Amino acid sequence: MSAKYHRTHHCNELNRTHVGSRVSLSGWVNSCRDLGGLVFLDLRDREGVTQLFVDPAAQPELARLLHEVREEWVLAATGTVQLRPEAMANRQRATGEIEVAVETLTVLNRAAPMPFHLEDQAVSEDLRLKYRYLDMRRSALVPNLRLRHRLTKSVRDALDSRGFVEVETPILSKSTPEGARDYLVPSRVHPGTFYALPQAPQQYKQLLMVGGLERYFQIARCFRDEDLRADRQPEFTQIDIEMSFVTREDVMETVEAMLAAVMREVAGREVALPFPRMSWQEAMDRYGSDKPDTRFGMELVDITPALATTEFRVFRGVLDAGGVIKAIRVENGGEASRRQLDAWTDTVRLFGAKGLAWLKQAEGEIGGSIAKFLNHTEKAEIRRRTGLQDGELLLIVADRPRVANEALGRLRLDIARSSGPLPTGCFHFLWVVDFPLLEYDEEAGRYAAVHHPFTSPLDEDVARLETEPGSVRAKAYDIVLNGVELGGGSIRIHDPVMQQTMFQALGIGAQEAQLRFGHLLEALRYGAPPHGGIALGLDRFAMLLAGAASIRDVIAFPKTTKAACLMTDSPSTVDPGQLDELHIAIRREEADPEAAAGLVPVERR
RNA sequence: GGGGGCGUAGCUCAAUUGGUUAGAGCGCCGGCCUGUCACGCCGGAGGUUGCGAGUUCGAGCCUCGUCGCUCCCGCCA
């Protein structure tokens, strides 16, 4: 009870109403200002900072102790709250009007000099990752983790109140051929076999529906051994949901209600329901993306009709090959420099576009890189379709629809982001529906599932599954927030025959289907209810709510883009004995004979 | 797998055309200081310029390779 670090208050609590009270605080030394005849010490805990005050004349032994004290030492202090002199109040802080006149001070722990300034906003990220526990003491990370906690709790409450049951599914799972690369875990007791870490609890949650659970959810850790991005980590968390006896509308309504509750509780915001819905085709046509950011305009305009009879060779070639000519109109773009246009050209080339054409208008006249190839009618028609005005710029890509859309979609985002911050505190939810069911994979020479192989086709498209598979749409839906894919789901196939048909369309033979998905196929035979669900990226959601630039900022211990943990230095080599037990031998890499021969220690850094 | 950016003191950065002993601020160590709040002032220590080759009379700077961090393309059912 009376431990020396017992606290009566936290460090963001005391104000003028506490003056005269005897209090105890514990925390870290944020800074210590020894003025010689006066000593101030800012004590910090997770809630805030309180100034401690010591008068060396009155307490010489305390002053001597404080002389030793350094940044980030851990202290417990007891003293009396006193008002600061009027002019000395710090209005920046909740506790700025008072200070604690110290009576006893205990050093709970010393601290080595910090590897970086905790207050320094410019510290490199690898250093922050190596000393994540110090990074956490700074202002940004802990509030993000607390926000994430509130988010998770709010999700649990919202789903619980709607009859959902939280169920844990196995982490040691089964490898499946479709989808992302698996993280594998070797089996000790079954030599030569492997578990896979789940990319998602997809099959388990469907089996829970067959099991009659009806409403399932899980805050589920998922693992994918693919290359990283600012919004992609090798392990991440999904809000995983599955429901029985539901249509797409039922799932979307449930998710909307949950998201509205979360937005209210976590962000204090009311969002209008239902969320807007847009077909995948419309999203691609208007925004060049299957996750459009609808916070701003600058939509893609199809100017193909204006150029249907063009004799400009480049455009003619594209049109004759079945391509399209699309444009975005950039307000205030008329002044764009050559250098800027070159940079934009590089951007569209990333997506396979051969080039970027541009037009601009000044004093009613259209000029630009391709102006001389267009006749008067074509220019007028382009102006009519795009609304081009003086001082504005038109960026044009002529290519296959997919290339033109994606290139301009990216350009649209880049230009919007570079021409000033996008509206903050603004949350545009959007459903994108009617995704294609299948997509032709050039490399594999077969169709692949756009969502996953358990996704149900639209009823009206089923007939085309075997004749024209590329045109079949899915009972799938993505939820998009501010241009970020927050989650996606679908109504699943619950008919074993349909599931077999789907595997066939994917080029998965009956034998392989049985080997990889036999458990699911069999389960569908025993009275599987119609069911569907969704999975939402918890990390991305937290990132957006926190206004963070990367999901690393809302994950306590994230990994680098090479999937390494700089703090624990994982992955790492293991004891040969461990490998023996797992029946695993490390193959020597040909590329580096010295390292393979063990002449050079393998190091990372 | 590919492309861009970055790598110099504990941290953040500088260093002219390739030229003498690689500097500054903060931090660290020592001292001074009665109203500070990233206190201030004086003094001091601190460097394998990520690593390895090469070019050169001479490399932090140029070339090649390599490692790490990061952004993007591919990839991510």
Please describe the structure with a list of short key phrases separated by commas or semicolons.
605 residues; alpha+beta; OB fold (Dihydrolipoamide Acetyltransferase, E2P); BirA Bifunctional Protein, domain 2; Gyrase A, domain 2; 3 domains; 8-stranded mixed β-sheet; 5-stranded mixed β-barrel; 22 strands; globular; disordered C terminus; RNA-binding
Query: In CATH, what is the homologous superfamily of the largest domain?
Result: Bira Bifunctional Protein, Domain 2
Domain tally: 3
* Largest sheet, spatial ordering of strands: 6-9-10-22-21-20-17-11
Helical amount: 25-40%
Low-confidence stretches: 590-605
Shape: globular
Cα gyration radius (Å):
30 Å
Indicate the CATH class of the largest domain: Alpha Beta
Please state the second-level CATH architecture of the largest domain: 2-Layer Sandwich
Tell me the number of helical segments per DSSP (H or I, 4 or more residues long). Answer: 16
Number of strands: 22
Structure classification: alpha+beta
- Sheet with the most strands, sense and barrel status: 8 strands, mixed
* Terminus-to-terminus distance: 48 Å
* Percentage of residues in DSSP E strands: 15-25%
CATH T-level topology of the largest domain: BirA Bifunctional Protein, domain 2
Mean pLDDT: 92
